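anyone seen this seq b4? input:
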Amino acid sequence: MNSLSRSEFRKQIRHTRNALPSDVQHQASIDLITQVSTQPELIKSQHIALYISADGELDTQPLIEWLWAQGKQTYLPVLHPFSPGHLLFLHYNSTTPLTYNKYGIIEPKLNQTLVKPVAQLDLIFTPLVAFDTQGQRLGMGGGYYDRTLSKWFETGKGAKPLGLAHDCQQVERLPTESWDIPLPKIVTPSKTWQWEIHR
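predicted toks r here
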């Protein structure tokens, strides 16, 4: 398995998570809350970015609703209209108008009054296709989150990333590129993985 290319890893892991039965998906989304609720980063965070799940990703909707119940402010990524390859984060609640972006992913309708600069976020729950035992993350290939997290990675300041994934998305070792941003912590329904990030 270690000889797979990045695109082969993507194909294999996406297939695996999409094949999870609905009852397993549902239980995983509930178990995730149990794992996330004790994380020190979350407890002290007020402004939290997440994403609406797609393509077999661990369902974040129960977590979002739990965060609302805790009085946390939540934000969703929107493809930047003028800066290709970059994300904006918009405030999100139960009445926020939603639309589909060019990738078929649900995002808030763009409203500049709802934009929260990344520097003012406390925590960014980060999607991923696969992760390895060194904290390397494999995304969908667009580089959006690598760009979003680059300032944090360079300085150690600002919104801290925390990856979310199914247990089946963990592999032994991923092939990496120079622009990949490793994650300091990844939470699955059964476990919390944590690494020292070397900048």
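The chain has one domain: 6-194. The longest strand covers residues 73-79. kinda curious what u guys think
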